[in-house]
Amino acid sequence: MVQVEVSRDLQIRTWVENQLCMENDLMPGAFPMTQQLINRQGNLCGTLYCLHGPRSVRLVAVHDTQSDRILTYDFQGSRTGDYAAQSIVDGCSDLINSVDSSFAAATILQSS
């Protein structure tokens, strides 16, 4: 297995996309996701993630950097989850490394 260093932000973004898709029965990667930094009085306090689903549905997650929590919301704006970001990052590294390894193997096969 190839070990790949992945930034914490990318780990959180990947987890958020997968979680929003899982909660709403969507296929990860099938819909675009945007992110926007949230500032309070000029200081970074979080990141807003928005998955742009089918039929103009928007699914949202907020990473509150002060409490290091990730809050997920459904298309009606109701909170569907509250997660500790650090436990997500700790559990996500193995998944991302295995996905990156599969991608690297596929790339090597295609270039042969």
| Number of discrete helical segments | 2
Rg measurement, Å: 15 Å
Shape summary: globular
Order of helices and strands, N to C?
HEEEEEH
Please bin the fraction of helical residues. Answer: 25-40%
Biggest sheet record: 5 strands, antiparallel
Query: How far do the termini sit from each other?
Result: 20 Å
- Label the structural class: alpha+beta
DSSP strand tally = 5
Report the uncertain regions: 94-112
Strand order of the largest sheet: 1-2-3-4-5
Give the integer mean of the pLDDT values.
Answer: 81
Question: Overview of this structure, please?
Answer:
There is one protein chain. This protein has 112 residues and is of the alpha+beta class. The chain is 38% helix and 32% strand. It contains 2 helices and 5 strands. It has helices spanning 8-23, 85-111; strands at residues 33-40, 43-52, 58-64, 69-73, 79-84. A 5-stranded antiparallel β-sheet has the order 1-2-3-4-5. Strand 1 (33-40) and strand 2 (43-52) form a beta hairpin. Helix 1 crosses helix 2. The longest helix has 27 residues, at 85-111. It is globular, with a radius of gyration of 15 Å.
